[in-house]
Amino acid sequence: MDAIPTSNMARGTMRLAGERPEPEFKWSCAPCRKRKSKCDRVQPCSSCTLRGTQTSCYVSNEAPRITPTSTKAPAAAAEDTATKRRLEALFEPALLDVGAGESKRARQAPSDSMVKFQDTLTKLSRSIQKLQHDGVKGTAGWGDTRPPWGDKLVQWDDLKDVLPTVREGNLFLDVFFTEMQWVVNYISKDRLDASWKTLTTDGRISRFSASLICSLFATVYLLCPSASAAHEAIKREPERFRVLHRTARTLLNEGSFADDEEFVDAGDIVGNELGVTFDQLQAYTMYASYCSLAGLTKKTWVSVGEAVRLGKASDLFDESRWARDRPCNSILDDDEVEYRRRMAWALSTLDRWQGLHYYRAIDMADDFSVHPPSFVSGDPSDPAVRFGRLMMGQSAVIRDVYRFVRNLTRMSASDRRQQAVLIDGRIEAWYSDLPDWLSYENACCKLKADDPQSYKLAAQALLLHNSMYKLRCILMRPFLLDPAAPHEMRFAALRNARKILEAMPLLVTLSNNPWTIIPPSWPTHQLFVAASTFTIVFLSSPSESSATDGSTTSSEKHAYSKWPDWPAEDLDWFASNVFEAIDTLHLVGSGMTGATARVSKRLLVGLISEREKLKERFADWNEASNRAAQTRARKDTVPSVLTAQASSPLFTSPSDDAKPAATENNGPLSSFSTTSTALLPTPNSTPPGPDAFPDWPFMAPWEWAALTDSFDNGQLDFAT
C-alpha cells in the first residue's frame, strides 16, 4: 500500500490490524523523545496510543510534516488522494460501531491491568518528583546529614542535643515572659507552655512549635541579663544559641506537614485557604525578630519578607476575614485575637524599620485592617502598655520618614523642605506623648543602685530617645549638602546625631548593669546613623562638587565647603568624642554576629585612620574662619586633641578594668569636653596605619563615602 489514510481513527485501526503506517512527520513526537522509545511518526503514534498520551502527541506543530506529493508526479498524487478517500470510506463506518462490536478491527478498550499499571507509573513518577524537590529544598542540619525528624511531628529525642535541659528551659521561659515582653510581646504564653510541656513529656509537637521554641531560647541567650537565674546556664554553654538559631531555620525549611491531621485541628487554622496555623505565623515572626535583634542583616531581610508574605497569604493583616473564613464549628477566642493583632503590628513595624535602614521596598507601606492590641486602651500606668503604645505610634512615623526618603529625588526643593518640617513635627509630637517616668531626662536622674526597676525603665527611655533622634537625623540628613536650605534645617541632622552620641555614657552604664536588657542591634543602628552623619562632613572634600544643578557658578557650586558655614561647636565636639563612639560600639556590639556593628566600627576607624587629612580640614577651617571669639577659642582645641592621639592605636580589647566608668560622670547628659583617657592607651610615637586595626579592614575615605546613600554623596539635585 503506497498511501496512508489521513483520518486519525483510520490510522489507529490500521495499526491495530498489523499494518505499519508510513511516517507522516520528520521527527519523533515529544513524548517518545522524552521516553527514548521508538515512534511511528504519525499522529497519534502507537507508543502514545498504548500509554494513553495521545493528547501530547505532536501538538502545536512541533515537527515538520513529510509531504509525499512533493516528490511524486501529479498522476501519482491524484491516485494517492483517491486511495485515501476510499480507505476513509471503508474504515470510518466500522469505527462508529465500536461499542456494538460489529467490527473486528475496532480498537478495544484498555484492560484493567493496563489501567492499574498506568496508575502505578503515575504514582511512582509523582513520588520521584517530590523526593527530588525535597532533596533540593531541604537544608542540612549538622554536618552533611539530613535532620532526623523528616516528615513527622517533632519529639524530644529529635531535639535533645539542641535544646537545654528541662529545668534550664523552664528558667528560659520564665525569663522571657517576665523580662523581655517589652521587646517581643506577641508570643502566647499559654500556647507556648503547652507546647513545651508536650515536648518534654515525650509528646509530639509540630515543627513550627519546635522552631518557635528554638528561636525563643536563642533570644534568651542573646538578651538574658547577667543577674537572672538563667544566666548561669548560658555561661556554661555560651555558643548554644548558634545551634538553636540554625535548628530554628532548618525546622522552618522542612517539607509540608499537611498529612499530620492529628495536629492540625479545625480550631487552630488561621482563616485562609493555605491551612496556615497560628503557631506557624508565630514561628516565622519570632525567627525574624531574633535575626533583627542579633544584627543578622541579610537573614533579617529575608525572614521578615517570608513572615510578611505568609501573613498576607493567611489574611493576618485583614481582621475582617479572620472569623469569616474559619470553619463553622470553630470560634476565635479573645486570647488568639489579641496575639494576632500584636503579631500584625509587630511585623509591620519590623518591615518598615528594615526598609528604612537599607532603603529597600517594603511590603507594609500602606495601612492595614487590624485593630490595635489591647494595650493601646489598657492602663497607662502599666509600663508594658505605655511602651507598646509608643512603639505603635513609632510605626506610623517610620513609614512617613521612609516615604520621604524614597520619594526625595522626585520632589522639588521647596516640597522637600516643607515635607521634612511637617514630618519632623509629627516625630516630635509622638515623642512628646511620653510619660514622665519614660522621659530620658527623668530616667537618667532617677537611677538607683539598689533599684533594678529604675535601670529597666532607663533602658526603655534611652532606646526611645535615640530612636526619635535617629528618625529626625535620617529625615534631615539630605539637607547637609544643600547650601540653599535654611540654616536650622541644614544642620539639624548634626544636632540630632550629637544627641544620640551624647547618650553614650548612659548606654555604657546600662550595658554593664546586670538587670537591664539592651538589644544590641538597636543602639548599634542608632550609633551608626549618628556617626555616618558626621562622616558626611569630614569625608566631603572642598574640591568635590555640591549637590546643585549645572546652572550654578563655580563659587556657588562649592558653597557648602566653606568651613565657616559649618557649626564649629558640633564639629569640635564630634572630633573630641569619636573615640568614645568607637569604644561604645565595641562594647554594645560585642558578641554580635551581624554586619551592622562591624560596619559601624569600620566606618569610624577608617575616618580616624585619616587623621592627617582630618587635621588639615580643621586647619583649613581655622584659617578661613573670621568668626567671633568662640571659633578662635576653639582654634587649637581640635588640633591639640588630634595631635595628642594621632600616634596612638585605637584601643585594646576591652576588659573589666578598661571599661569606662560611666557612673562617675556628673550625669548621662553631661557632654565630653576632652577625650576620656580611660578609653585610650598611652600614645606611642608611630602613627597608626591600616595594619594597626587587624579586626576591621581598612577602607579609604572614598570607600566610606560609598556606604552612604546617593543624597549623602551629593548626587541629589537640590535646586530642582
From TrEMBL:
Where are stretches of biased composition, namely Low complexity? 668-683
The segments labelled Disordered in the record are: 625-695
Gene Ontology MF, one:
DNA-binding transcription factor activity, RNA polymerase II-specific
Entry keyword Nucleus: yes
Show the SMART domains listed in the entry: GAL4 (SM00066)
Q: Please give one Pfam family short name.
A: Zn_clus
The Zn(2)-C6 fungal-type domain covers which part of the protein? 28-59
Biological source species = Acaromyces ingoldii
Kindly give the InterPro entries that the UniProt entry links to this protein. Answer: Sec_Metabolite_Reg (IPR050613), Zn2-C6_fun-type_DNA-bd_sf (IPR036864), Zn2Cys6_DnaBD (IPR001138)
**Alphabetized UniProt keyword annotations:** Nucleus
What cellular-component terms does GO give this entry? nucleus
Biased amino acid composition, Polar residues:
640-655
- Protein name in the entry: Zn(2)-C6 fungal-type domain-containing protein
Localized where?
A: Nucleus
